[in-house]
Amino acid sequence: MTPGDLRALCLSFNGAVEDFPFNPETSVFKVRGKMFALTNLDARPLKVNLKCDPEDALRLRTEYAGLILPGWHMNKRHWNTVVAGGADNADGFLPDTLVRELVEDSYDLVVAGLPRAERLRLDRP
């Protein structure tokens, strides 16, 4: 996955915006003010912090050791750092389809935690 692909994916969700609250290099993707992805799009390898169900987080870290890690500078129970592209290890790369699913899952978890009225606003065209 390229940095452009990751940015486009994150911005493709209803209500998603890119913000730079920490520094000009760190893209924070939010929905209704809540973060669902955090990345430095210029970093190599390309990594992204994503929210994850705690049980799934542990399973994914085991299944994709070295490519899915506890969330760097995040609550490690609820966040993973995902090597989204440009990493090479014995197992190769994470498939783009998996990265897309993980980004979508992160967005969905954040939206599910929003008040009902906020969720309904996202469904409107």
TrEMBL record:
<protein>
    <submittedName>
        <fullName>MmcQ/YjbR family DNA-binding protein</fullName>
    </submittedName>
</protein>
<dbReference type="InterPro" id="IPR038056">
    <property type="entry name" value="YjbR-like_sf"/>
</dbReference>
<dbReference type="InterPro" id="IPR058532">
    <property type="entry name" value="YjbR/MT2646/Rv2570-like"/>
</dbReference>
<keyword id="KW-0238">DNA-binding</keyword>
<dbReference type="GO" id="GO:0003677">
    <property type="term" value="F:DNA binding"/>
</dbReference>
<dbReference type="Pfam" id="PF04237">
    <property type="entry name" value="YjbR"/>
</dbReference>
<dbReference type="InterPro" id="IPR007351">
    <property type="entry name" value="YjbR"/>
</dbReference>
